[in-house]
């Protein structure tokens, strides 16, 4: 086995992820292989250096994001998400249609001039005479 | 001892002048009573004139137990008589031999002269000039904004209204009336306050419309007629017509007491009322609110009920218009 192929096993050995048989094989190889001994020292030094680094700050919205990701695919006690979206969409469409109908019915309402009615009242009052003898 | 007496006197003086002990609103109470029939028999001659129109002359008398009679005088004597016999009101048109029956509404003046101030109106009392030779008090009624609405002269001795003026919002005189002659205490024959229609007379309810006119109005407008159930004293439904307005047709009910007219316009649904640039003020009705405006023919009231718009035009005070409007069914 060439040293190049041992490096992956040395990495697993340093990370503590190798099995017992793989650990024994690595240790047996390291006894006789100088380059791999150097590789082991390098891997251990790198791991120590990484541990010495300060921990990166936890993003504030991490939990929100995690909750969103981990939320169940159904709305609480309701319809599946696609159906909820469909319902919301339909509600919006109906609301818009209702608003348009309301606007249309208001615009469509004919404006009646009260002044014309007053004029009709006045003309009748004059035409009928003081005692209301006018017949229609 | 002296100190205690002084303090008691001061407290009594303060109590007498505090608002809580100020007593009733005297001008308002005097107006309310001024249009009621006096306890003594009364006779008078009243002239009524709307701005720019002819003078109408009424002979008015009242007797015991609230009976009354008002004759609208024509060129050949009484042309229209209103008799309240204590139970009913009879309206008689001698020239047409028509009789209308209404509810007994005792008042000393025709309906157009009646006035009741609004709650928000400001009233002031002063000494007025004599009317029909009788000393009087003058009550001026102004709106909250200080606009003069009415002037009423009230008889000092018997407290009845002797003269009145109604003003438009622009300050112009809307209509006026006054007793030219009055006498108190002279008893009139009881027959004057009784009415028996002759067999030839056509007797009908004063709210009943001519059948053919009403049928025609229904056919042309497609509207179910809605008329008032209450009318001021002396008024009856004179005719029903149809007024075309653009694509819409409006029913026009015309009521009259011989001297003045009252019009009710019943509009179709899906319309808006346009009151013109001056607009109007809000008036509360039992079934909603209305807009009260003013025109050359007197006050105009517009309101909506069950989707239908109504307009009422006539020389009545706001209270009279409100009562007619609320009775429309």
Order of helices and strands of chain A: HHHHHEH
Helix content of chain A: over 70%
Mean pLDDT of chain A: 77
Query: What is the subunit arrangement here?
Result: heterodimer
Which two protein chains have the largest interface (Cβ within 8 Å of the partner's Cβ), and how many residues from each? A-B, 25 and 45 residues
Summarize the main sheet of chain A.
none
What is the CATH domain class of the largest domain in chain B? Mainly Beta
Radius of gyration of chain A: 44 Å
Q: Give the DSSP E fraction of chain A (strand runs of 2 or more residues).
A: under 5%
Low-pLDDT parts of chain B are: 11-23
| CATH topology call of the largest domain in chain B | outer membrane lipoprotein receptor (LolB), chain A
Question: What can you see in these coordinates?
Answer:
The complex is a heterodimer of chains A (136) and B (329). Chain A is mainly alpha-helical and 136 residues long. Chain A has a domain at 3-52. Chain A contains six helices and one strand. The longest helix of chain A is centred in the last third of the chain and has 28 residues, at 81-108. Chain A is rod-shaped and about 135 Å long. By secondary structure, chain B is mainly beta. Chain B has two domains: 26-193, Lipoprotein localisation LolA/LolB/LppX (outer membrane lipoprotein receptor (LolB), chain A); 206-271 and 279-326, Phosphorylase Kinase, domain 1, CATH 3.30.200.100. Helices cover 14% and strands 46% of the residues of chain B. Chain B has four helices and 20 strands. Chain B has a twelve-stranded mixed sheet, with helices on one face. The radius of gyration of chain B is 23 Å and the shape is globular. The N and C termini of chain B lie far apart (71 Å). The interface between A and B is medium-sized, with 25 and 45 residues.
